[in-house]
Design a protein that fits this description.
This protein has 293 residues and is α+β, with helices and mostly antiparallel strands.
């Protein structure tokens, strides 16, 4: 029998060292690969987070723009509604004026027809048959003319003219046409303006007196030109607008004017364009006020 070769201590030691060196080198390579993988995943997550933040900011900006457009659209709808009401009032006012003018023209035509008829009656000649049967008409008188005579040497016959008589005429009585005086109605008192809600005297809530009652003015379209006209109407040089109840408090009574459109050179606030008396879509929390200089 042959003996098996046995490993010596030196060989075992060399084998173990080789194993450790192989494992160490392999472990370092694995650590580097793992580190690269983790770094790549971190970069990916960072890019995803940045993209999410960017998308979130874009969505917020889009929502803000949509909200702004919605508010603008609501304001435009409100202005269109106010314009529709103003147009309706103006059309009704124009129709009323046209009806009044038509009635006035018809009355004038009737008066003109009566004048023409009276004139024709006064200018038409009287009927001959009526004149012959009337006792008040002067009948024509036949007159005789003297025949000419030739002078004779002996005698001359005198010629006599037949006297004519004129029938008496009686004037036709005329009855004067009664005239009735048209009743005069007192002219209504015009609108007035004042400032209320302040003790300074040069500022306050704008109030208007119309139809026997004090009311307020809505702040819709009430801007610098309207404030200037109000202050000049009260004797000041100019003014600025102050609106809503936080300035001079909310008023009471009717809201007489709204959607004013002044140019700034009017002598009175009532000369400015508006929606008409009592036409508005406001509340007293929108009462306009001014601060005059």
């Amino acid at each position: 029998m042959t003996a098996k070769p046995s490993l010596t201590t030196c060989q075992v030691t060399c084998f173990i060292l080789c194993v450790f060196l192989f494992v160490g080198s392999t472990h370092g390579h694995l650590q580097e690969e793992w580190k690269k993988y983790v770094d790549s995943q971190l970069l990916y997550l960072r890019s995803e987070i940045l993209q999410y933040v960017k998308d979130h900011s874009f969505i917020l900006n889009t929502l803000r723009a949509l909200n702004w457009h919605l508010l603008t659209l609501r304001k435009d709808i409100k202005q269109l509604d106010a314009g529709r009401r103003i147009l309706k009032v103006q059309m009704e006012y124009s129709l009323t004026n046209v009806t009044k003018h038509v009635d006035s023209i018809e009355e004038k035509l009737k008066d003109l027809e009566e004048i023409i008829a009276n004139h024709q009656q006064n200018t038409v000649g009287p009927d001959v048959d009526t004149l012959e049967g009337s006792e008040t008409v002067e009948k024509p008188v036949q007159t005789t003319t003297a025949k000419p005579t030739t002078a004779k040497p002996t005698t001359q016959k005198p010629t006599t003219q037949k006297p004519t008589t004129q029938a008496p005429t009686t004037p036709k009585p005329t009855t004067p046409k009664p005239t009735t005086a048209e009743p005069t109605t007192p002219k209504p008192e015009g609108p007035k303006l004042r400032l209320a809600g302040s003790s300074t005297g040069n500022g306050g809530r704008v109030e208007v007196y119309h139809n026997g009652q004090w009311g307020t003015v809505c702040a819709d379209n009430f801007e610098r030109f309207e404030a200037t006209v109000v202050c000049k109407m009260l004797g000041f040089s100019g003014g600025t607008i102050r609106v809503y109840k936080e300035s001079f408090g909310a008023g009471s009574g009717p809201i007489w004017l709204s959607n004013l459109g002044c140019r700034g050179d009017e002598l009175s606030l009532f000369d400015c364009r508006s929606g008409g008396w009592g036409v508005h879509n406001c509340g007293h929390y929108e009462d306009a006020g001014v601060q005059c200089n």
